[in-house]
Amino acid sequence: MAGIALLTIKQFQARIHRFDNRYVEHWRQLHHTFHNSENMPKVFGSILRKWQACRPNKMRRTKYDGLHEPPYLEDLLMQSNQHIYTLRNFCMRSENSLTPETIAALSHLWAIFKNLSYSGRARNGLAGIVGISKAVLLLTDGRVGPAFDAKVRGNLHITTPQNAQQWIDALKIVMGDIQKFEERNHITLQNAAPHAFQELNCGRIYDMALGPGS
């Protein structure tokens, strides 16, 4: 399957329903603590580790954990704040969201979150597209997505993005896929989703449609 462009609404909903419920619970857990600044770095790290975001490398921990030298997860989150704010109105339904400002924000986020991991045999110990895109998906409340894991990349028939520009190009492919789906079915992505998930942002909904099944 190449994306969602050729799916009917029922087929699209079926793909979302087979999404792994563990990831739904992780998402709810993050939302529960999102406004708790003391717990946020810990929960953020816990969820990304459950999602195997940095495999096979070692992912950074909080300063409290004391397992490595800085930067810690708190530092990465602080560095990302202004760029996440720039993406506050980003929507995967429209390429108009890709302004010079949001493109710059995405590029900065790539540079920040490649440091999600600090040691390992892959990429000289740095995080790649999986860790970076999963971190940004979480922190933008699902506005920027999907997370480009192997499952999603396989469905889209794209190679692994190696830098920020290739990530942005992959997001453009997703935007085009969403647009074709909406035009074919005469419905918005959110309205096509099962009722329980219609309040989610488009990047998150798309991630559920193409991501790992249960």
Short description:
This protein is mainly α. The chain has one domain. It has 10 helices and 2 strands, in the order H-H-H-E-H-H-E-H-H-H-H-H.
Structure, explained:
53% of the residues lie in helices and 2% in strands. The protein has one domain. It is mostly helical. Strands 1-2 form a two-stranded antiparallel sheet. The model has no long low-confidence stretch (mean pLDDT 93). The protein is built from 10 helices and 2 strands; from the N terminus they run αααβααβααααα. Helix 1 crosses helix 10 and helix 2 runs antiparallel to helix 3.
Helix content class: 40-55%
User: What would you call the structural class?
Assistant: mainly alpha
In what order do the strands lie side by side in the largest sheet?
1-2
For the biggest sheet, the summary is: 2 strands, antiparallel
Provide mean pLDDT, rounded.
Answer: 93
Backbone CA Rg: 17 Å
Number of domains: 1
